[in-house]
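Question thread 4412

I'm putting together a teaching handout and wanted feedback from people who do this every day. The idea is simple: show students a protein as raw sequence, then show them the structure tokens that encode its fold, then repeat with a second protein so they can compare. Below is the first pair exactly as I plan to print it.
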Amino acid sequence: MAGETSSQDRTEQPTAKRLREAREKGQIARSRELNTMISLFFGSLGFVLLGDFMVGRILKLFKSDFVISRAWMFDPAKILEAIAVNATASLALLAPFFALMFVSVFVGPIAVGGWSFSPQAMAPKLSKLNPLSGMKRVFGPNGLMELAKALLKFILLGVVAAAVLYSYRNELIGLGLEPVSQGLVHGAWIFFVEFFALAAALVLIAAIDVPYQLWNHRNKLKMSRQEVRDENKQTEGNPEVKGRIRAVQREMAQRRMLEAVPDADVVIVNPTHYSVALKYNEGDERAPRVVAKGVEHLALKIREIAKAHDVPVFSAPPLARALYYSTEVDQMVPEGLYVAIAKVLAYVFQIKLHGPGAVVAPDDLEIPREFLELNRKNTRFDR
């Protein structure tokens, strides 16, 4: 048998567990084209918001740097001090723009795959150094797709950049003739237009790349039917084991139920297939309670225990079936059967006081129509 599941066999969508494990490993859908587009848009926004501030600071730097006293020129310490001052001023000038670009780095990944920090993805893997795997990645479907996107991006951005520069060709040449402050503002505006045009051009590529990356990510995580079954066994347990556990639980429930039969007041039977044991705690509860019930062999077992402990067994087929289908173990009997149950209990208590031959068994047990309908729908045995 093959050691790995082929991609043709993976026809099932990834489960929530598979997706969660992939996220923990750092396997999340990502679009570099979307990241680049957002970074360019943030850069354009930075020029708009910070343009006046940056141009003003640059002009101050020009004025301070182009006016140097003769004493400073011959003092190495002053020159170093001037360099330090300029470096600090340059960092202060660019810090807001860099902060904005730093934020843009996180917007794209969060927008597509969400936030994820995976130590497993950061761990070194020797398999990544395998040249054969590298060649497979380069010349595989993903590698060809990346190559196609790179060529498309290069052509598209090249055309857009050339078109913008060509449209501003006269203004670019004329920048050298403008005053410094005006030239800086004008150049910054052209730079902003170029950034914005490149970002707008990348919208087309990102619109293609984002759906592809989402589809490709889920396609890579697809599972075979056997993998889905194996995962269900791991998460929910082996069906054979679960079945055995349920069987043991049923046996324990039946054992506890049968232990309650000796304390019952009466067992109402079909008499062939159904047995329902009732217990009435007068004064504590408003109605009798079903302490045990069963069909076929379990019904026989209930009758055997009842006879062994001198618990009266009363034959009333419609009532036995109505109790069986309308009431669960440890539940009170329904109100519709109160009258019939009361007659049976009265008969049983009279037998205990006067003996079996002194009391006539009731034969007028009225069962409401809804219980008779319930019997007809559920009865599996001959009546």
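The second pair follows. I'd like the answer to focus on this one:
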Amino acid sequence: MLSGGGARAAYEVGVLKAIYNGKCPAAAGSSTPEVFSGTGAGAFNAAVIASRLPGQFPAPIEYLESLWADEIPQEGLMRNNRVFRKRVDTAQFFDIPFMWRRPLKSWALYFGDLGEVMPKLFGGSAKDLSIWNDLSPMQRLISESVSLGVIRDGEDGMGPKRILRVISTEKGSGRPHIFKNADFTEEIGHKAILSSCALPMIFPPVDIDGKEFFYGGLVMKAPLDPAIEAGSTTIHLIQNDPKTEQLGNAPNALETLTRSVAIALAATLEKDLDNRRRLNAGSGAQRVVVHRHRPKTVLGGNAGLLNFSRENVQAYIAAGELDASQHDCAGNACIL
């Protein structure tokens, strides 16, 4: 179970490395994972793993780590990472090496951005910050790294079981929408992952069959119920936020919004986990073990959410692997 968190989802890669490589004591003796559910960037991580066959080279986790460590921090010779591109990036004209490498491309992007942004500014969308961010880099990353056919075959096919659940929020109703393996068609599959990653007010919502969807983490911080409904009996819940009391004060509007949502959803998650403890203590429900993994501090400090620098990503992966290798069930309030 993988939660959202922008660049901080690289922490999940480190935890997964420890689990898959036998370094996590909580996963000792476990069978190969069969169910992957996620919200936000966690949905991307889950989809990448579910779209790789166990014997494929490179292995699922190695491939996911290569995406985060090598691909996501930078897109070719561009100034941007492979998640989003800032529109009307005037600073690029002061980046001489960039201008020298891609003079025509930079001018085309700049004036194309003006054509995209100006009508929206004068059309009443000036307060919508998402008009300044272009999600096409993430769209390309998802389409290049996620095999939809393999996902569709993962739940009902003849090969190894790889059940995938991706959660998005339906705009307007505010209801969670759960995309299942069969939903990952060529028409909407990549859009489903993109929609789960679309942070409100930062990135635009994604249109799927006439409805708009955005960040799944707003309605489901960690998709516990979809994983259990898919048949999970042992769950590794990976969160990218520390305990609520360790969040501290946020220095800017984005972090304030993110932490406010995190606190609200953390309370809901705790209720879900308490309910699972009660069900485990009863006699009528299937017993479900939940191992919780979370960082000890706010990853990347106050600027970690959208900082996809190589240094940040590598630090998050290393932190996740270290924390998982030192996992303490009592300290993490795991459900056993």
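Top answer:
Good format. For the second protein you could add a caption like this: The radius of gyration is 20 Å. The mean pLDDT is 87.
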